[in-house]
Amino acid sequence: MSDSKNHTDPSRRAFLASAAIAASVAVVGLRPRTASAAGEKLPHLSESDPLAKSLGYRANASAVDRKKFPTYKPGDRCGMCRFFLGTPGEKAGYAGCQIYAGYSVNADGWCASFNARS
Ligand code: SF4
Fold this sequence. Notes:
- This protein is mainly α.
- It has a single domain (2-106), classed as Irregular (High-Potential Iron-Sulfur Protein, Chain A), CATH 4.10.490.
- The chain has two helices and two strands.
- It has helices at 2-37, 50-54; strands at residues 94-96, 104-106.
- The longest helix has 36 residues, at 2-37.
- The chain is globular.
- The relative contact order is 0.19.
- The site of iron/sulfur cluster has 13 residues, from loops.
- Residues 57, 78, 81, 83-84, 97, 99, 105, 109-111, 113-114 line the site of iron/sulfur cluster (SF4).
């Protein structure tokens, strides 16, 4: 009888441990989104930020280096991106971005993580 109890305890412990980890990940994962949603209060993302630079972020999409980032298509901009946390289709102003937690991006900007809203 105690054998079956011993067999279930490790799996139960493992389940509880993985549930705790999953809950922690969910909480950590949600925090930047919530903070980014208030984009107007966040500092503007700098084009010289290391991640922004590596992804070719430009506050004005017309300044994108098209040779270095050939996926850019005229008309693509943050306001049309699924990661933009402002009003979909927005043409001006700043709002949070799921890629750059803690910063706001220009609705008229662009980076290589652009993913068009469907
Ligand atoms: S991920 Fe989308 S919203 Fe964020 S900076 Fe890049 S293009 Fe703009």
